[in-house]
Write a structure and sequence with these properties.
It contains eight helices and six strands. By secondary structure, the chain is α+β, with helices and mostly antiparallel strands. A four-stranded antiparallel sheet has the order 3-4-6-5. It has a two-stranded antiparallel sheet with strand order 1-2.
Length: 231
């Protein structure tokens, strides 16, 4: 069964890469058809994975999936305002924001392929998306172990690993991508549309998003991810 699933996922990935994908969808400015805040194929794979985990006492709960460009800009602008009002220089504020939050238009959550998950079988309080809650005796530690063993069987891969030499966004053991679809979106983002982002007049700090910033941001944040995502 696992071999069949992997073969199917590989076929879908090759087919998707050949399709024409709307650049506005990649940027989050339009939305794909969604089921449960995911593309239908992603949702179906997620449901299979959730049901398999449930048999082992793990209750996978999605706390974030699709996110529009406008919503990501709201998050960005709010953080930018807070940090600059606290006296942080604009460029330093931007670097602080991109520890965890993506620049609008570059969020993988725009695509309907990525999910943030927790183990809802255990009591959760406060900020549920903290790395320490996925390790040791944390409430989502069993989920992390299960995903490490089984997520790839359903097409899901961790994006921001804990590799010591990885740069960019901090480790997110809760963030998984449905690789058979997301690979094509990443290629379009990095090769064709990222330069459009700085043209948004409502994006705070956009005057500091020059060519040097985008070169560094692309290399260290967008592309310094789990290397298996390039396979």
């Amino acid at each position: 069964m696992k071999a069949l699933l992997k073969a199917l996922f590989l076929y879908v990935s090759m087919y998707t890469s050949a399709q024409n994908i709307d650049p506005l969808l990649v940027l989050g400015k339009t939305s794909p058809p969604l089921v449960g805040s995911m593309q239908e194929e992603v949702y179906e794979a997620y449901e299979l994975m959730r049901q398999a985990a449930a048999k082992e006492g793990i209750d996978i709960k999605v706390v974030s999936a699709h996110r529009s460009y406008n919503r990501q800009r709201e998050i960005w602008n709010a953080k930018y305002k807070t940090l600059t009002l606290q006296g942080l220089p604009a460029k330093d504020a931007i670097q602080e924001i991109i520890t965890y939050s993506t620049l609008p238009g570059t969020s993988r959550h725009h695509w309907g392929t990525d999910i943030d998950i927790i183990d809802n079988a255990n009591p959760q309080s406060g900020d549920v998306l903290l790395a320490e809650k996925f390790y040791g005796d944390g409430p989502s530690s069993a989920l992390r172990s299960w995903m490490n063993q089984h997520a790839a069987d359903f097409g899901f891969l961790e994006v921001y690993t804990d590799h010591p030499y990885r740069k960019g966004f901090a480790h997110e053991p809760w963030h998984y991508t449905y690789h058979p679809l997301s690979k094509a979106y990443l290629e379009i983002l990095t090769n064709h549309v990222i330069s459009e982002i700085a043209k948004d007049e409502q994006l705070l700090g956009r005057e500091f998003l020059d060519a040097e910033f985008f070169k560094s941001y692309t290399a260290e944040h967008i592309l310094d991810i789990n290397p298996i995502l390039f396979d």
